[in-house]
Amino acid sequence: MSVVCNLSDERLLIEAAQKDPSRFAELYQRNFHRVYAFVARRVHNRDEAEEVTAEVFHEALLNLQRFQWRGAPFAAWLLRIAANTVSDRRRCEARHGAGTEDPLDEVEAEVYVVAEAERRAMLYQLVDRLPADQRLVVMRRFVDQKSIREIAQELGRSEGAVKQLQFRALQSLRHQARSHYE
Amino acid sequence: MNSVAVSDELDHAIDVMQAGLPGPEPIFQGETIDLLRVAQDLASMPRADFMSRLLVELQWQASGREITSFSRPPVRNPQSSISNYEFMPTLLGRGNEIYPFRHRNVAASAALHAGLFLLLGSGLVMVSSKAHIDARPTVSEIELYTPLDAYPPHGGGSGAGDKIGASQGEAPRFASEQLAPPIVAPATSKIRVEDTLIGPPDLNVPKTRPEGDPLSTLLALSSGVGVRGTGSGEGTGDGSGHGSGRGPGAGSGSGVGFALAGRGVTPPRVIYKLEPEYSDEARQLKHQGIVTLSVVVGVDGRTKHIEVVHSLGMGLDEKAMEAVRIWRFQPGMKDGHPVPTQVTVDVDFHLF
Fold it and tell me: Is A123 in contact with B42 (Cβ distance < 8 A)?
């Protein structure tokens, strides 16, 4: 029942965005982490993941009028755009000898990656719910790739204290992720 | 294993993961392995401000404005395989399309765009744009600029604003030191110091009449044509200014005008801001405070003419200017039109 309600809500959001493109922001916020996680799983680094994600949403907004509601989630359309964008890049790289094709079978890869993307998207959103000091340590450590020493200097705390924050943050994320799937 | 030991082991495992060392994983135990998997997922998280930056770009795109993107490649030709999207079509055996590059298509596209621009320029095609912006709460640090009423507006490098042209005359002689700049001598002055121009004293200029414009046909005394502008000197004014007096003047006299909030001008609103970084020097000394900047917000919502009003030093002024330089605003509006508007911005530097 809740799935039907969510899809109905989503359909209304899509129709609203098709009438007024500024309403696309709501669809964007609902699907950002999902698309980013999907793309990040398929590309080489964060810069490329951000580039491709931006490209996906710009194209989606540009072609929103051509979207037709067929009962599938809007995310499926976005992930289709994302998959094609990544594939185009790989082909371009392969033609220029800069990269390799995805070694996994395309269908198998897609099913796996979509499920992985959902899980990671949820994890990214759980980071936003961490206490401020734990969230800061997670962002500095894993996104900015700072060392414990650098983070300790920035926070004005000991390295041991920062390691404890890191440890508790990861424990909390693991616990919340498991609770979500139980 | 107590929690300190586990947190140390976990941190070591994360270092190994981030270093990307090849070979089998070092021998980590139970909970460390579990938490390391979470850490591996976090390694690809987006940057903290990426989501909000991209949202701003999408809002600009939705409003019909041209995007000068922060960091993304140009939007591809939308004639890609989007029109017939279905859920996982590769399950049905369809492959993705290949996009060969054809020069003929590029030439045709360029010709079509040139034709459209000509039509737009001739006014035959009117394009309406929706300037609707899903505005976020404005930054509370922005204060409206309050001019000092007693401060007389004047610009530099322009004439005195006389209605008639400069009177005919000759340029004064050059001197290495200037006691008095060239002016029209009032009839009542009793003490007269010879007007000079700064330059090599031996530079000869033909002398025929008193100071003025040798090329002017006007014989009545005049201070010269010029409209007071704001320039980059002291003082402010509305609108643009220009002038062309002779001799040196105070300020640059470039005459770039901008409005002040209030007086029928709605203030600009922040739609995207980037938090400034702390300088290493200030962080080490735990130096904190507020940097106040004077900023002009252009009609495109970008910031220009950023100047420090209140300095904190230790590199924080530069960091504040760096951050504000890429802030984006909804521009100030007057009578329904965007106008360049000056605002004051407080940038707060505080350590946790």
Answer: yes
Q: What is the mean pLDDT of residues A155-182?
A: 89
- Residues sharing a CB contact under 8 Å with residue A96, sequence separation 6 or more, in sequence order: none
Residue A135 is which amino acid? R
pLDDT surpasses 70 at A28: yes
Residue A13: enclosing H or E segment and its boundaries?
Answer: helix A2-19
Q: What is the pLDDT of residues B322-331, one digit of tens each?
A: 889 888 888 8
Which residues does B25 contact at the CB level (< 8 Å), separation at least 6? B13, B16
Q: What is the mean pLDDT of residues B145-157?
A: 47
Distance between B75 CA and the closest CA of chain A, angstroms: 7
**Chain A nearest CA to B262, separation (Å):** 28
Helices (H), B171-315: 280-284
Q: B106: burial class by Cβ within 10 Å (0-12, 13-18, 19+)? A: exposed
Q: What is the pLDDT of residue B249?
A: 44
CB contact under 8 A, A58 and B75: yes
Kindly state the DSSP code that residue B349 receives in the 8-state scheme: E
pLDDT, one tens digit per residue, over A64-105 is 999 988 888 899 999 999 999 999 888 887 877 655 555 444
Whether the complex's predicted ipTM is more than 0.90 is answered with no
Cα atoms in the 13 Å half-sphere on the side-chain side of B308: 14
d(CA B346, CA B352): 18
CB spacing of B73 vs A154 below 8 angstroms: no
As a whole number, mean pLDDT of residues A108-117 equals 68
Do the chains contact at A139 and B7, CB–CB below 8 Å? no
Nearest to B38 among A32, A80, A173 (CB): A173
DSSP of A39-68: HHHHSSSHHHHHHHHHHHHHHHHHTGGG--
What residues form DSSP beta bridges with B338? Answer: B333
Residues in chain A: 182
Contact B279, B315 (CB under 8 A): yes
pLDDT at B132: 46
Residue at B65: amino acid letter: R
Residue type, position B64, single letter: G
Query: Which residues does residue B334 pair with via DSSP β-bridges, in sequence order?
Result: B265, B337
